[in-house]
Amino acid sequence: MIDVRVSLCADEAVDIRRFQLEPINSTTLPAFTAGAHIDVHLPNGLVRQYSLCNADSENHRYVIGVLKDPASRGGSNAMHELIRPGDVIRISEPRNLFPLAEQGKRHLLFAGGIGITPLLSMAEHLHRHDQPFELHYCARASERMAFRQQLQEADFASRVHLHFDDGDAQQKLDAAQLLARPDADTHLYVCGPGGFMEHVLSTARQQGWPESQLHREYFAAAPVDHDAEGSFEVVLQSSGVIYQIPAERSIVQVLEAAGVDVPVSCEQGICGTCLTRVLSGEPDHRDMFMTDEEHAANDQMTLCCSRSRSARLVLDL
């Protein structure tokens, strides 16, 4: 864990605020790669993940952008209402679950709303390394588009295309046209609201893009209906102890209550922190982190949200 000082809080757009974090005990912070995020430990005890949106060549600061979500579970509200310049907060070292594909020779970046944050860092990296890319950024209105001025003044501004829901028809995103000619050297990256991401990804699939060239990062999990949940057993391979998982509790909740240490962060199945190997049984995957192929393999699962189709799961814990 790292203690950092909040050196800047500034409104970027309606309900979106930029936070700049700087080191306290040194002049540098751990290096990161474009697409990485940090865990932020909030004053109210919550832990939330935020993408780093500054250039990955910088080691004197981290910059994050936070949307004040009306459906907040307490994280974004705390960032907006409790964090002020001069505050010292605790963060994790950066982790990257949404990296640029090393084999890609051309990159298409699609951002919706606050989903611009990891893609902004990617654009900075790609420009600095002279790699071809386009950034398409969609927002409901110009006043809701974070980092707009920064993008318009960037050295790579000619590669940035801004799309507004309330704008003229000709400037709106035409995903079918942009994705009409897939090739093996081009990779697609998308981040933003679930509906926006599904539109881009489904359009790409319809145009023949292979899954290996589609990269995504979700900020929130889709709602799940828990009315028909049942109970099941979990067995830990190391101890043989059996735990009953009732309908109203997750695997993580039961194991943590029993003193079993399980790394967990988002608690929604989007970050992969609690990914655990499954030795026996059939998981009922509820995450948005793994691919369809990884789900089909049934050899790992996210313990924070996924459940079981079989009466018992044996976990590599």
UniProtKB/TrEMBL annotation:
Residues 1-101 form the FAD-binding FR-type domain. CDD domains: fer2, PDR_like. The keyword Calcium does not apply. Keywords: 2Fe-2S, Flavoprotein, FMN, Iron, Iron-sulfur, Metal-binding, Oxidoreductase. Residues 232-317 form the 2Fe-2S ferredoxin-type domain. Its cofactor is FMN. The keyword Translocase does not apply. It comes from the Bacteria. SUPFAM superfamilies: 2Fe-2S ferredoxin-like, Ferredoxin reductase-like, C-terminal NADP-linked domain, Riboflavin synthase domain-like. It holds the Pfam family DmmA-like_N. Signal peptide: none annotated. InterPro entries: 2Fe-2S_ferredoxin-like_sf, 2Fe-2S_ferredoxin-type, 2Fe2S_fd_BS, Beta-grasp_dom_sf, DmmA-like_N, FAD-bd_FR_type, FNR_nucleotide-bd, MRET. This is Vanillate O-demethylase oxidoreductase. It comes from Pokkaliibacter plantistimulans.
